[in-house]
């Protein structure tokens, strides 16, 4: 990656690396022990390693003179590698905790192996590590090509990617040490949250500057979605993580929100993490890679506009549907429920637009596993958004809430939609940035596709059954008005579904491992310089 | 939009494009499908109806109450009351009266015992085991040994207020630590106590130490039966184990196990129902053991 930087950029990188090392040293020295000290040590090691590499490479050959007229894909390549590494970590942790629910005694008596510490490793590893790296990597790829311009500068993409991955590493290693602020999907402690704000603002500015340099008169819709993702995630992250550290030298903090306000802010964040992290950004991915891969125009420009503004406007209201039948006032629940229902049509507009785009390219869907990943993603996007609106209706929620139906719903979205579109995007762009026509093994892509689809279906169907069974058992009364089942009976009834879930998840993980190996073989086959294509000639995809 | 662009017609759909292109991507100028507009309208109508009927929009310190006048607090209370009334048809009989009379009412028991089984599974089984089989540190309920007496009134009292639970009416049971004894003395007493179930209780230093320090709670020769929370040491009633090593640990550190008070979590009728269920476990298990 250093050989793509000019001398002044290498010097700037060196300064930033030294600053990171100093920051890490200060954190470690101030905290002395505990998670914050370990995290300071990690930052210091990363800063020193980068500084040594950059200092050693100051006199290396400079990049070719025509650099400015080529796309900058080295950060995308790095982001994809990190995406695949985090896929192994996050999905591996997921399969392990799924197995723990079936074999609860499998955990050795070590605190870090307990379910409670490993579960956030799975969620953070997948949402932020796997999903986040994929979003950043593809957003760099897409914004350059749809704007016919190079990234606005060559240092800040690395700040974003390295900084973001340091955040993810701080998060999951902190959970293993028992450090968490106990907010779901926002478990990382205050200093990591501040760090992410710095990284994210850098990302936002880089994205805006790149868009400002575009050579197209209009901004393509994919960039609108990516931009909504970047902007709103910053807003959600800052508001939900407002907290007062107990001391500046320890990881612990108190949230400034209390009681039901805290719950409301948390689920306003939590659901919009689904909306803007796991949906808006990935719709950006879909709106670029689906037409490129299928060679078809987007079916309806108008529908994509309706969908964009509908999603952006309605989603922000719906977080309260996570708090039905709680201390949250009824009126807030009603608003969450009704906006969830109104959200359905804009969501389906995108799913329908994607599927209608494939009209005229169905033979490609049949023959090309990569395009099939995107097709399945669009179908699962439609399915899980329908399910989401349905589950948000209060009486339905009274059956589904606190059951594994929620888990099934989430995984129909994350496995079926988010991961599938990521794999579709990876299989499209990895050969391209590696200067190849196809992946190293097209057969492996086919294997991956069927493992992923089968695994998802087994997982989701098992969890639907599990959740509805739980919900019905919990509310069943016998003819004398006594509960028909004790809680432990409903736990015992879950055994076959939990086993099936573990099997489905393991199949999905196996597919991801195949993907990672295939990408490794594809990337190794060519030097990254072949990736940079002249901006002037735009080959049809 | 940009009418000066030359519009291209897509051969598959017959629609023209918007005239823009991004890296080969074009967009068709397909109008809104009518079904999308109608579907959106239907969801909006649904939302507006819900807003009219239900509490919906905040108004500063108040909110729109909705025509149905629903209040989720009242609804929760009413729902709970309905279920309680339904169950109360038979459960109310458990509230008072003599346990023997209640137990003799076959109809009542046929209705009540399945409910008691679930109540036990939800509240008691976590410590005492699914069938009352107990576990290390938690007493067996399915045998004939009772630290506070087998009388249902005594069992109900324990369930109500617990043991060392912090409730003002709780039973207090503490085995003090005999850390002032020498290690040798503790070892001798432990050997003595561990032999009691097999009837080995000869005279000697250990027997003297036992008579001076232990018998006041555990009875002469560890006979027990005082029903003050101290087990007989001559049968299998000891919760923590009666091998020499465990007894030494008990002597060194003492014991003070806790059973929570249930009076604030279960109704009096439910507590008395559980009492009969637990007493029944003991009888069924006790017969099997004989």
TrEMBL record, chain A:
Localization, UniProt: Cell membrane
Pathway this chain belongs to: Energy metabolism; oxidative phosphorylation
Requisite cofactors: Cu(2+); heme b
Reactions this protein catalyses: 4 Fe(II)-[cytochrome c] + O2 + 8 H(+)(in) = 4 Fe(III)-[cytochrome c] + 2 H2O + 4 H(+)(out)
Membrane topology designation: Multi-pass membrane protein
Entry keyword Iron: yes
Main location: membrane
Domain Cytochrome oxidase subunit I profile: 14-541
Enzyme class: translocase
EC numbers: 7.1.1.9
Record-linked CDD domains: cbb3_Oxidase_I (cd01661)
Domain of life: Bacteria
Matches recorded under Pfam families: COX1
Transmembrane segments: 38-58, 78-103, 123-143, 155-178, 190-212, 224-248, 268-289, 301-318, 330-349, 370-393, 413-430, 450-477, 497-517
Keywords: Cell membrane, Copper, Electron transport, Heme, Iron, Membrane, Metal-binding, Respiratory chain, Translocase, Transmembrane, Transmembrane helix, Transport
Family: Belongs to the heme-copper respiratory oxidase family.
Name of this protein: cytochrome-c oxidase
Organism: Paracoccus marinaquae
Lineage: Bacteria, Pseudomonadati, Pseudomonadota, Alphaproteobacteria, Rhodobacterales
TrEMBL record, chain B:
Residue spans crossing the bilayer: 35-57
Protein localization: Cell inner membrane
Gene (UniProt): ccoP
Organism of this sequence: Paracoccus marinaquae
Predominant subcellular localization, coarse grouping: membrane
The name this protein goes by in its record: Cbb3-type cytochrome c oxidase subunit
Top-level taxon in the UniProt lineage: Bacteria
Cofactor remark from the record: Binds 2 heme C groups per subunit.
PROSITE patterns: CYTC
Residue ranges occupied by any Cytochrome c domain in the UniProt entry: 111-197, 201-282
Sequence similarity: Belongs to the CcoP / FixP family.
Pathway terms, separated by semicolons: Energy metabolism; oxidative phosphorylation
């Amino acid at each position: 990656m250093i050989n793509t930087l000019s001398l002044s950029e290498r010097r700037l990188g060196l300064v930033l690396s030294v600053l990171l090392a100093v920051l890490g040293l200060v954190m470690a020295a101030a905290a002395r022990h505990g998670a914050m000290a370990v995290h300071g040590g990690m930052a210091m090691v990363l800063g020193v390693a980068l500084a040594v590499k950059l200092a050693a490479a100051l006199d290396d050959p400079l990049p070719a003179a025509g650099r400015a007229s080529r796309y900058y894909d080295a950060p995308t390549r790095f982001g994809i590698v990190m995406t695949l590494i985090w896929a192994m970590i996050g999905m591996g942790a997921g399969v392990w905790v799924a197995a723990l629910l079936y074999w609860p005694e499998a955990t050795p008596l070590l605190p870090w192996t307990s379910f409670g510490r490993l579960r956030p490793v799975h969620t953070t590893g997948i949402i932020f590590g796997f999903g986040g790296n994929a979003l950043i990597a593809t957003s760099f790829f897409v914004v350059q090509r749809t704007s016919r311009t190079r990234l606005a500068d060559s240092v800040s993409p690395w700040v974003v990617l390295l900084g973001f991955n340091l955040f993810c590493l701080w998060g999951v290693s902190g959970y293993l040490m028992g450090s968490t602020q106990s907010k779901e999907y926002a478990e990382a402690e205050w200093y990591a949250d501040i760090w992410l704000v710095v990284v994210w603002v850098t990302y936002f500015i880089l994205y805006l500057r790149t868009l400002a340099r575009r050579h197209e008169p209009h901004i393509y819709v994919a960039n609108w979605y990516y931009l909504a993702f970047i902007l709103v995630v910053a807003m959600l992250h800052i508001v939900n993580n407002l907290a007062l550290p107990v001391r500046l030298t320890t990881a612990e903090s108190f949230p400034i929100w209390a009681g039901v306000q805290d719950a409301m802010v948390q689920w306003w964040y939590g659901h919009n993490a689904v909306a803007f992290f796991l949906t808006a950004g990935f719709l950006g991915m879909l709106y670029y890679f689906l037409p490129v891969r299928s060679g078809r125009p987007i079916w309806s420009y108008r529908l994509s506009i309706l969908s964009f503004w509908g999603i952006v406007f309605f989603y922000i209201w719906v977080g309260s549907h996570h708090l039905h039948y709680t201390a949250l006032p009824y009126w807030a629940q009603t608003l969450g429920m009704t906006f969830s229902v109104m959200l359905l049509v804009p969501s389906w507009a995108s799913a329908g637009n994607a599927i209608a785009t494939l009209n005229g390219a169905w033979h490609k869907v049949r023959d090309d596993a990569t395009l099939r990943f995107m097709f399945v993603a669009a179908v699962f996007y439609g399915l899980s958004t329908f399910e989401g609106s349905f589950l948000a209706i209060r009486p339905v929620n009274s059956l589904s809430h606190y059951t594994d139906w929620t888990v099934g719903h989430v995984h129909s979205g994350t496995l079926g939609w988010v991961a599938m579109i990521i794999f579709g995007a990876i299989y499209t762009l990895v050969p391209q940035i590696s200067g190849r026509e196809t992946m190293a093994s097209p057969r492996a892509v086919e294997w991956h596709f069927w493992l992923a689809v089968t695994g998802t279906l087994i997982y989701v169907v098992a969890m639907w059954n599990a959740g509805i069974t739980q919900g019905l058992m919990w509310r069943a009364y016998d003819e004398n008005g006594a509960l028909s089942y004790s809680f432990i009976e409903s736990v015992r009834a879950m055994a076959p579904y939990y086993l099936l879930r573990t099997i489905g998840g393991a199949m999905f993980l196996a597919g991801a491992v195949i993907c990672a190996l295939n990408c490794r073989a594809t990337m190794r086959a060519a030097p990254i310089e072949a990736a940079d294509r002249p901006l002037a000639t735009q080959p049809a995809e | 939009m940009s009418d000066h662009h030359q519009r291209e017609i897509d051969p598959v759909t017959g629609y023209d494009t918007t005239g823009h292109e991004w890296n080969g991507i074009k967009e068709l100028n397909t109008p809104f499908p009518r079904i999308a507009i109608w579907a959106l309208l239907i969801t909006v109508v649904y939302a507006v109806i819900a807003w009219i009927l239900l509490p919906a929009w905040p108004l500063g310190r108040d909110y729109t109450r909705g025509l149905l006048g629903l209040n989720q607090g009242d609804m929760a209370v009413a729902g709970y009351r309905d279920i309680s009334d339904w169950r109360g048809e038979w459960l109310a009989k458990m509230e008072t009266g003599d346990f023997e009379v209640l137990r003799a009412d076959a109809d009542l028991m046929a209705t009540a015992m399945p409910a008691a089984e679930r109540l036990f599974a939800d509240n008691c089984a976590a410590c005492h085991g699914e069938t009352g089989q107990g576990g290390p540190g938690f007493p067996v309920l399915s045998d004939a040994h009772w630290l506070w007496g087998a009388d249902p009134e005594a069992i109900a009292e324990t369930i109500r207020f617990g043991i060392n639970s912090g409730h003002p009416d709780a039973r207090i049971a503490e085995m003090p630590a005999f850390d002032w004894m020498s290690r040798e003395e503790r070892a001798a007493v432990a050997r003595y106590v561990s032999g009691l179930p097999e009837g080995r209780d000869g005279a000697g230093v250990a027997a003297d130490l036992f008579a001076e320090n232990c018998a006041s709670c555990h009875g002469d020769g560890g006979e027990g039966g005082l029903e003050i929370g101290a087990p007989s040491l001559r049968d299998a009633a000891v919760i923590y184990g009666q091998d020499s090593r465990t007894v030494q640990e008990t002597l060194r550190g003492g014991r003070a196990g806790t059973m929570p008070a249930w009076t604030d979590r279960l109704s009096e009728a439910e507590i008395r129902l559980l009492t009969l269920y637990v007493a029944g476990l003991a009888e069924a298990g006790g017969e099997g053991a004989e």
